[in-house]
C-alpha cells in the first residue's frame, strides 16, 4: 500500500513537472501556380523571373513560404519562463530546405527568457521592424505584399536579423515596444539597431519602427489600420534607407469566408530610377480555420505578376 502511494505521488509530481513544459511542432504548407516577371532569377521575393506560368513554392507570388518549426516553453516559476524557436523553410517543388539565413534553421534559431518585466530574446529572429509592419499591413505580411516588396518591412530590406539581442516590453493598455541590437563583431564590423513602438487595441493598430546600421542610412516606417465591421483601412509612410520612400493606402472587405484586399503604394523618392505606383489585388477564401485558397495580382515597378495557390497552417 505504501509503495502504491509512493508511486502515485511520483507520477503526480512528474505530471505536474511535464505540465510546466511543452514542445510544439508547427508549420505551413503553401503552393500554387503563377507567373513572375519581376527580378532576375532565384526563388526569393524581389528576385524572381519567369515569362511562363509555373509551379510556385517560396516565391514572391505565394501567400507565404512553406516551413516547419519547433518551439517550446518551460515555466520556471515565479512568473519566469524560458523558451526556444527553431524554424526551417521548405520548398514544395522538390523538397529542398529553404534557409533564408543560409542555414537549415534559417528562418528562426533563438531562445528567450520572459516574465512580467518583458522578454529577452537571443539569436536569429524576425526583427522589430517586421512586427511593426505586421500590426497594420492588410495581407498579414504575405510574400506578395505590395508594401513589403516596394519599401521593405518598415523600410528594412529583409525581415530577419541574425545574432540579435532584443528586449520587448510587456503590453500595457495596448502599448508595447521592442529594441533589437547586433554587435559589430556579428555584423561585418558594423553594429546595427532596430526599434519599434506598437499600439494594438480593439479596432486600431499603429506601428512605428526605425533601424540603422553603423555607417549606413536611417530607415523607418509608420503605419496604421482601422477595422470597422467587415472592413479595414490602412495607410503608411516608409523610408527604405534613403533609397526609396513613399506611402501606401489600402482597404479590405470580409464577407464570411471571402476576403478581398486592395493596396496601393506610391514613390515620393526613388534613387534607383523613376517613381512608381504599385498595386496589389488579393482574394482569399477560407476552407477552414487553417486552410484557405488565394489569388493575387501584383503590379510591381511596371511588371505584372500573379499567383493562385492554397495554404494550410498546422
From TrEMBL:
<keyword id="KW-0812">Transmembrane</keyword>
<dbReference type="InterPro" id="IPR002299">
    <property type="entry name" value="Porin_Neis"/>
</dbReference>
<feature type="domain" description="Porin">
    <location>
        <begin position="8"/>
        <end position="304"/>
    </location>
</feature>
<protein>
    <recommendedName>
        <fullName>Porin domain-containing protein</fullName>
    </recommendedName>
</protein>
<keyword id="KW-0732">Signal</keyword>
<keyword id="KW-0626">Porin</keyword>
<dbReference type="InterPro" id="IPR050298">
    <property type="entry name" value="Gram-neg_bact_OMP"/>
</dbReference>
<keyword id="KW-0472">Membrane</keyword>
<keyword id="KW-0406">Ion transport</keyword>
<keyword id="KW-1134">Transmembrane beta strand</keyword>
<dbReference type="GO" id="GO:0009279">
    <property type="term" value="C:cell outer membrane"/>
</dbReference>
<dbReference type="GO" id="GO:0006811">
    <property type="term" value="P:monoatomic ion transport"/>
</dbReference>
<dbReference type="Pfam" id="PF13609">
    <property type="entry name" value="Porin_4"/>
</dbReference>
<comment type="subunit">
    <text>Homotrimer.</text>
</comment>
<dbReference type="InterPro" id="IPR033900">
    <property type="entry name" value="Gram_neg_porin_domain"/>
</dbReference>
<dbReference type="GO" id="GO:0046930">
    <property type="term" value="C:pore complex"/>
</dbReference>
<dbReference type="GO" id="GO:0015288">
    <property type="term" value="F:porin activity"/>
</dbReference>
<keyword id="KW-0998">Cell outer membrane</keyword>
<feature type="signal peptide">
    <location>
        <begin position="1"/>
        <end position="19"/>
    </location>
</feature>
<dbReference type="InterPro" id="IPR023614">
    <property type="entry name" value="Porin_dom_sf"/>
</dbReference>
<keyword id="KW-0813">Transport</keyword>
Amino acid at each position: 500500500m505504501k509503495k502504491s502511494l509512493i508511486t502515485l505521488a511520483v507520477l503526480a509530481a512528474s505530471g505536474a513537472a511535464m505540465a510546466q513544459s511543452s514542445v510544439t511542432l508547427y508549420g505551413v504548407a503553401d503552393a500554387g501556380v503563377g507567373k513572375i516577371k519581376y527580378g532576375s532569377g532565384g526563388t526569393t521575393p524581389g528576385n524572381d523571373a519567369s515569362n511562363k506560368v509555373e509551379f510556385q513554392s517560396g516565391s514572391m507570388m505565394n501567400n507565404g513560404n512553406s516551413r516547419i518549426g519547433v518551439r517550446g516553453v518551460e515555466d520556471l516559476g515565479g512568473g519566469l519562463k524560458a523558451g526556444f524557436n527553431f524554424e526551417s523553410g521548405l520548398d514544395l517543388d522538390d523538397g529542398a530546405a529553404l534557409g533564408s539565413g543560409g542555414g537549415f534553421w534559417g528562418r528562426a534559431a533563438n531562445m528567450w527568457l520572459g516574465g512580467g518585466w518583458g522578454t529577452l530574446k537571443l539569436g536569429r529572429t524576425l526583427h522589430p521592424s517586421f512586427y511593426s509592419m505586421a500590426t497594420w499591413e492588410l495581407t498579414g505580411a504575405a510574400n506578395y505584399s505590395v508594401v513589403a516588396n516596394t519599401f521593405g518591412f518598415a523600410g528594412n530590406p529583409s525581415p530577419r536579423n541574425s545574432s540579435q539581442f532584443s528586449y520587448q516590453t510587456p503590453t500595457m493598455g495596448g502599448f508595447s515596444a521592442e529594441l533589437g541590437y547586433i554587435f559589430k563583431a556579428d555584423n561585418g564590423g558594423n553594429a546595427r539597431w532596430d526599434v519599434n513602438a506598437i499600439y494594438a487595441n480593439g479596432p486600431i493598430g499603429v506601428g512605428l519602427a526605425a533601424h540603422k546600421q553603423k555607417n549606413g542610412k536611417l530607415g523607418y516606417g509608420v503605419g496604421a489600420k482601422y477595422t470597422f465591421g467587415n472592413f479595414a483601412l490602412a495607410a503608411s509612410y516608409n523610408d527604405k534607407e534613403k533609397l526609396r520612400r513613399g506611402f501606401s493606402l489600402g482597404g479590405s472587405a470580409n464577407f464570411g469566408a471571402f476576403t478581398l484586399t486592395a493596396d496601393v503604394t506610391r514613390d515620393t523618392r526613388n534613387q534607383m530610377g523613376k517613381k512608381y505606383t504599385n498595386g496589389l489585388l488579393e482574394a482569399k477564401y477560407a476552407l477552414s480555420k487553417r486552410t484557405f485558397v488565394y489569388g493575387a495580382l501584383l503590379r510591381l515597378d511596371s511588371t505584372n505578376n500573379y499567383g493562385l495557390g492554397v495554404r494550410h497552417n498546422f
